[in-house]
Backbone:
């Protein structure tokens, strides 16, 4: 547990420092995720060390979005007079994005994996 | 005995109250989700944020005071994002075999979301910084906020749109994909993470571990795609 916490935080920190130092257009934790994936490929024993904590965190991933979500409720009035237009654009584009990406994925998958 | 008002003053000075309230509100949401037979529209994040929003309003608490406590939960988003490496590693053979579908879905879905968002917003009369705030909303918040700043949008508005997109995506994705007849959890998970970022990924993990792994990688790839493509698309359109 202690080692798992240290590894996750160290990867996040390394990601954050790299992003800041190089001025990259990526969130530090995303780079930290790539780093941890690379480390596990190089040292497979790491997987067992971090697995329990990682699965515990991901099982309650939804909880971690609550503080930011409350911010939206608290600032809803800022949508103001543009609220309806913004919500309409949001609904249409989210539906369109979800539909196109799943159909393209499934379509290309059928080409490269004909038996499935 | 200490008067109730004094206890309240003491509690509102401490982060513990709103930290506890956040976890409790989510527990209520999660309980409701399970009690409903895991119905997709009974989203625990949505329930928790509405409950807490109502409590803040009723007690006259500002978001800043609330966030002093809730930031401890918020902070864990960073380590949880790093933790996505574990399902990525577990499913690595799956993922390597589907590099081509992932790339195609990422570009097609990303451009579709961006162009339809800008198109509908423009048609309904949105212009300038409000319209531009829509462009990066499918990416995970830190990227979306940075891109909004770079292209002349309003970062706080984009942050709200990211959350609303995530909630909407998490609520409609299961009925939508059932209606479309797509059963492959790799495709469903990937498209959800690419379109509805973190909250979509959380939803994918509720449904299936493979869907969750693909949603996680999609969220990471879409962060990269949004950062690179949004300035180009916006520069070309406006």
Residues:
């Amino acid at each position: 547990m202690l080692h798992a916490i240290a590894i996750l935080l160290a990867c996040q920190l390394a990601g954050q420092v790299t992003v800041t130092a190089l001025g990259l257009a990526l969130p530090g934790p995303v780079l930290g995720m790539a780093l941890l994936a690379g480390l596990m490929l190089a040292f497979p024993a790491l997987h067992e060390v971090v697995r329990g904590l990682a699965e515990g965190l991901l099982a309650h991933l939804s909880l971690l979005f609550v503080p930011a979500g409350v911010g939206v409720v608290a600032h809803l009035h800022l949508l103001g007079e543009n609220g309806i237009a913004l919500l309409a654009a949001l609904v249409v584009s989210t539906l369109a994005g979800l539909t196109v990406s799943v159909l393209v994925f499934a379509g290309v998958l059928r080409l490269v994996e004909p038996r499935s | 005995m200490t008067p109730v008002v004094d206890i309240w003053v003491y509690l509102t000075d401490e982060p513990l109250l709103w930290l506890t309230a956040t976890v409790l509100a989510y527990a209520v949401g999660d309980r409701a989700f399970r009690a409903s037979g895991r119905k997709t529209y009974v989203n625990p994040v949505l329930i928790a944020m509405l409950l807490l929003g109502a409590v803040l309003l009723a007690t006259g608490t500002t978001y800043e005071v609330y966030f002093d406590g809730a930031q401890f939960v918020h902070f864990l988003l960073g380590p949880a994002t790093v933790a996505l490496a574990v399902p990525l590693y577990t499913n690595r053979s799956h993922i390597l075999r589907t590099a081509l579908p992932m790339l195609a879905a990422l570009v097609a879905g990303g451009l579709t979301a961006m162009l339809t968002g800008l198109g509908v917003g423009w048609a309904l009369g949105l212009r300038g910084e409000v319209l531009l705030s829509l462009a990066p909303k499918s990416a995970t918040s830190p990227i979306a906020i940075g891109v909004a700043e770079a292209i002349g949008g309003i970062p706080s508005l984009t942050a709200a749109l990211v959350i609303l997109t995530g909630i909407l995506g998490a609520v409609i994705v299961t009925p939508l994909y059932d209606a479309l007849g797509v059963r492959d959890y790799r495709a469903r998970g990937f498209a959800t993470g690419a379109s509805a970022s973190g909250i979509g990924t959380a939803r994918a993990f509720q449904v299936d571990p493979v869907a969750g792994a693909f949603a996680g990688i999609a969220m990471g790839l879409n962060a990269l795609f949004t950062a690179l493509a949004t300035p180009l698309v916006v520069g070309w359109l406006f």
Q: What stands out?
A: The mean pLDDT of chain A is 91. Chain A touches chain B through 78 residues (CB under 8 Å).
